[in-house]
Structures are given as structure tokens and as C-alpha cells.
Amino acid sequence: MWFRQLTFYRLNADSTPDNAELSQALTKRPFQPCMGLDWFSEGWVVPAPHLESLAYHVRHCQLIALRREDKVLPGAVVRDFVELKVQEIEDKELRKVGRKEKLALKEQITDDLLPRAFVRSGRLNAYLDGQRGWLMVDSSTSSKSETLLSKLREALPPFPAALPRTKIAPHTAMTDWLAAGEAPAGFELDADCELKDSGENGAVIRCTRMDLTADEIRQHIATGKQVTRVGLIWQEKIRFQLSDTLQLKRIQFLDLLQEEASQAGDDRESLFAATFTLMSEELGELVDELVAALGGLEDDQAKPVPLAVTTPNTAGSNNDVPWD
To answer: Taking a C-beta distance cutoff of 8 angstroms, is the pair 195, 220 a contact?
Structure first.
């Protein structure tokens, strides 16, 4: 349940759904297995095995999950079948198979093999934080995050949401932090970073398990390198890497939070609810403080978004594996 990566979007108050609207919209686009000649399929599933509704809500947050299946048909397998078919035709008909005919054979063989191909399955979790106005996606891969956002727009058109635009660019702020040898209030520098030369050669320096206040780091900055990733620890609760695209990577919820969640009880329903509640509250505070450290949002994104809240969901079943 704990998110390991994070891409977050600013929600728009004009088209933010309440719990009933969100659940009903997702129900109209459930996941269906990848069948026949389809290369992939995507759809909404319950966020946890014991749930029934496609939108699980606690307090002001709504947890959702997008499942995807992809057919796995290696090109080498198709080529082998094509070569066998070409050889069979040439031996039987005593003629050379041309390029166009080979392409037609490849298409036919692909269609024949596709229904029998292996299927790779994964799931991507996200939640809407209605109090703070964020869509939080458990991924640092832009294409996956945009896919989930696109599916939400299909279910709830137009669903306005956009990547946050801070008044201070992340790479500028991170470079300033390392130049000063100090993170903003509430954060502390961890032990890893990445610096990149903005010149033509684009040299990249990666530091791990290193004192980020060392003179060597400042010397790299003095030569014109900018920080594109830095490790941070927030409130002694969450360790993560901040990227210049304002994504959080390698998130670790530290022992303090893990122990707090484990005190909720031994049954899976109580543990799941406690973990999600705690995670969403802490991630929400972290993101708010991080955005504030970057000068806040541009004026057109600054207003928080109210979101209606209703009662929690109850039990159901699902057996998905993590997408990331």
C-alpha cells in the first residue's frame, strides 16, 4: 500500500468529482481481460482485495487503481515462424518469396499467435486528495501517470488536472540548497544527488552515500553544474529523492510511520485503512511543504480544491500485482 514513487497533479475545482460520482464513473469502465487480437487492455479495479467499490475513500481522500494487461509476443518468435513459413513455400512452390509477401505473412502469423500470447499484468494506484487539491499517482514514469490521468478524463470528462508549476524551478532550488549546504525548513539533505553540466557536453555527476555539504559538491556547482536530483529526509518520517521534474522517487516511509500504522490491528481491513489514512496525510503534508519551499504554486494553481466526502467502502475481492 505504501507508495514508492510519486507524480502529483493539481486538481481543478470546476470538475472535481464527489465520491458517488467518481465511483459511478469508474464502474462504467471496469477492467476487462486482454482478449483476441488486442495487444493490451486497461480498466479500473478495486484498490485492494477486500474492497467492493472502485473508489475507496477515507476522510478527504479517494483511492483508485488502474489495471493494465499487455500481450507478450517477442519479435524473435514471430520472425522464426515467418522464416519457417517462407522456407516451406519456397521448397513447395520452387520460387522466391518477395518482400511484400513476407510482410503479409508476418501480419497473418502475428494475428495467429496473438490470442495465444502470454499476458503481463500490472496495476497503478493513485488517490485524489480533495482537501489539498492533489491527484497523487504511485509512479515516477510520466507515460504511466499520463495514462491514468487520460483514463480519468475518459471517465469524467474533462477532468481538468495539470502538473504543478512552482514559482521557483526545482533545479534552481535544489542547486541553491546544495550551494548553501542546507535544505529548507522541515527537510534535511540525505546522502545522494545528481548534478548535470548545462553546457554542450552534458557531463553528469552522480553522488551516493556522500556528505552533500562537502566542498566537492559546491565546487561542481561553482563550475556551472545544476542539481537535477537530490536525496531529502522530511520530518524524520519520509526519505525520498526529488527530481528536477518535481517527481518523488525511491520513497521510504521510515520506522516511525511504519510502527504507527502497525498499531491499527492485525486484521487486513484495519491495517489497510490505517496505512492509507496515515500515508495520504503524511504525503499530503510533505507535498504542501515541498511546494512551499519552491516558492508556492503559480497564481492560477494556488487555490485549494474542496471535495465532497461520504462514508467509507466495505469488503470485496481482487488479485492484482503492482504496476511499478
So the answer is: yes
Supply the DSSP symbol for 205: E
3-state secondary structure of 226: strand
The model's pLDDT over 107-129, given as tens digits with 9 standing for 90+, comes to 999 999 999 899 999 999 999 99
DSSP string spanning 105-168?
A: HHHHHHHHHGGGSEEEEEEEEEEEETTTTEEEES-S-HHHHHHHHHHHHHHSTT--EE---BSS
219 located within any domain: yes
CB neighbour list of residue 299: distance below 8 Å, 6 or more residues apart: none
DSSP conformational letter for 312: P
The model carries a pTM of 0.84
Q: Are 316 and 50 in contact (CB under 8 A)?
A: yes
Model pLDDT for residues 194-225, shown as the tens digit of each residue: 999 987 678 899 999 999 999 999 999 999 99
At 87, is the secondary structure helix, strand, or coil?
Answer: helix
Q: How far apart are CA 121 and CA 56, in angstroms?
A: 22
- What is the per-residue pLDDT for 80? 93
Same-domain pairing of 46 and 180: no
Contact 141, 124 (CB under 8 A): no
- Tell me how many domains the chain contains: 3
Give the structural domain span for 124: 7-73+118-162
Q: Give the chain's end-to-end CA distance (angstroms, integer).
A: 12
